[in-house]
Amino acid sequence: MPRNDLPEPHQGLDALLPAEIAQRAEQLGAAKTRLDWITLMALAVLGGAFIGLGGMFATTVLAGLEGAEGPVRALAGLVFALGLVLVVVGGAELFTGNNLMVMAWASGKVRLAEMLRAWAIVWTGNFVGAIGTALLVFLAGQPLLGDGAGAVTALKIAAAKTSLPLLRAFFLGILCNVLVCLAVWLSYGARGTADKIFAILLPVSAFVTAGFEHSVANMYFVPLGFLLAWFGPEALVASGPGAEAAAALSMVGFARNLAAVTLGNVIGGGVLVGAVYWFIYLRRR
After folding, report:
1. pLDDT number for residue 239
2. What superfamily would CATH give domain 15-281?
3. How far apart are CA 98 and CA 100, in angstroms?
4. Nearest to 263 by CA among 55, 123, 158
5. How many angstroms separate the CA atoms of 58 and 27, rounded?
6. pLDDT > 70: percent of the chain
7. Are 154 and 228 in contact (CB under 8 A)?
8. pLDDT tens for each residue of 177-236
């Protein structure tokens, strides 16, 4: 199905009402599951790359500011929102947002196998795009700006994620995708580009500020940490905070984190947002 077969956005003067957003989410979910796999994969690679760019932006901000933890994290969250803005406005597919496809499945518009196929393709494409962005950022030497402050910050972020206890990562993933899918939900009701951007900013800023876990973001942050630990300047990991963070990195920890956060994201976005809104607005149609 070509991309222009997706439902047209609302053209009226007012934003869509929640019941209308539910119908649009259902239609979009069904249409996306039927995109050919090459198109879906290409859009998913873009989605992973866009989230990686948001992660790069946020890491750079965190590296340049000290103290005042809450305000600094809030600022990092605002700039990280670049990723979802690029996905929604620029056009890409994101695994976490696509958990709203549960609404189309619950309404019988798509089969379970179709939904799971789309999720698998998009998750894989997001992984490729996020890792590719991490590699480009590393090769460009961008984390080494500011005397390597960005690299140390990136290593700390990666180490913190791979060290998270399994259950904590799972619940942080649930909370994260509640906010991400609410951001996508609100963008469906917007009438213009500016409205979509404003709808996205606060929910995304909230999840970053609160330290919640986003599976696709972690596909960027942790590989970048490994690249810096394995191939970065020797001085970066010889001593100090960079060395401590590099030593804490673990491939097993990354795999456990990604599995737990992915499952948490599915429950947060698919059940606590998608299924709940389906129950409220679509179950009696």
Report:
1. 75
2. Glycerol uptake facilitator protein. (1.20.1080.10)
3. 5
4. 123
5. 33
6. 94
7. yes
8. 999 999 999 999 998 999 999 999 999 999 999 999 999 999 999 999 999 999 988 878
Q: Cβ–Cβ contacts within 10 Å for residue 86, how many? A: 19
Rounded CA separation 68/35 (Å): 46
CB of 45 closer than 8 Å to CB of 128: yes
How many angstroms separate the CA atoms of 221 and 162, rounded?
10
Residue recorded with tokens 């709940």? 276
The backbone torsions φ and ψ at residue 27, rounded to the nearest 5 degrees and listed phi first, read -65, -45
| Secondary structure of the chain in HEC code, one letter for each residue | CCHHHCCCCCCCCCCCCHHHHHHHHHHHHHHHHCCCHHHHHHHHHHHHHHHHHHHHHHHHHHHCCCCCHHHHHHHHHHHHCHHHHHHHHHHCCCCCHHHHHHHHHHCCCCCHHHHHHHHHHHHHHHHHHHHHHHHHHHHCCHHHCCCCHHHHHHHHHHHHHHCCCHHHHHHHHHHHHHHHHHHHHHHHCCCCHHHHHHHHHHHHHHHHHHCCCCHHHHHHHHHHHHHHHHHCCHHHHHCHHHHHHHHHCCHHHHHHHHHHHHHHHHHHHHHHHHHHHHHHHCCCC
Q: State pLDDT tens for residues 158-173.
A: 999 999 999 999 999 9
Of the candidates 140, 172, 138, 185, the residue with the CA atom closest to the CA atom of residue 265: 172
**Residue from 145, 152, 147, 164 nearest 241 by CA:** 152
* pTM, 2 dp: 0.92
CA 138 vs CA 92, 101, 215, 219: distances in Å: 23, 34, 20, 14
Q: What is the pLDDT of residue 112?
A: 97
CA-derived radius of gyration, the chain: 19
Mean pLDDT of the chain: 92
